[in-house]
UniProtKB/TrEMBL annotation:
Residues 150-164 have a biased composition (Basic and acidic residues). Residues 165-175 have a biased composition (Acidic residues). The lineage of its organism: Eukaryota, Metazoa, Chordata, Craniata, Vertebrata. This is Uncharacterized protein C9orf85 homolog. It holds the Pfam family DUF2039.
Amino acid sequence: MSSERGNAARKRSQKHKNVTAFRNNRHDTSPRVQKMNSVVHEGVCMRCKEVLEWKVKYGKYKPLTHARKCVRCQQRTVLRAYHTACIHCAVRLGICAKCGTEGGVVTPLGNQGDKEEPGDQGGDQGGDQGGDQGGDQGGDQGGDQGGDQGGDREEVHGGDHGGDGEDGSDDDASDSDGPLAESAT
């Protein structure tokens, strides 16, 4: 190829084709590379996530050694490489922590905050059980206590509500008042 303008088109295929894909941990199995491969990119838009994944895949990702300054709050709270905004500002403003664009955040950082971590672990388990068993009932009632009990409750209540509609809920109220009233007398 010459440097002549307009003569940059190549007419032949690549001479040395890659047989196997590049792996960044083939020869380097240091803890730094393992940590780099296990990084989860959260709080960024799809484009920034693809860029960060490319950097990790080809060994170009360089983790931060010191906290950097957030461009929004001017505090040294940015703890992730290539990010420009801290976790708190990104969540508060709903922006990508890397490029700063609004909306389009793939996975929000709010789920991974230090303050919310213990509650989210129990909430995720309860949410999964509640979502699988009783979306109509509410996931928190049978979430952490026992999946079988929540399922039994759903079958009993689900059958009454599903067949009768609003009348079924009134019947449930009268049924629950009836046995209590009978046992009290």
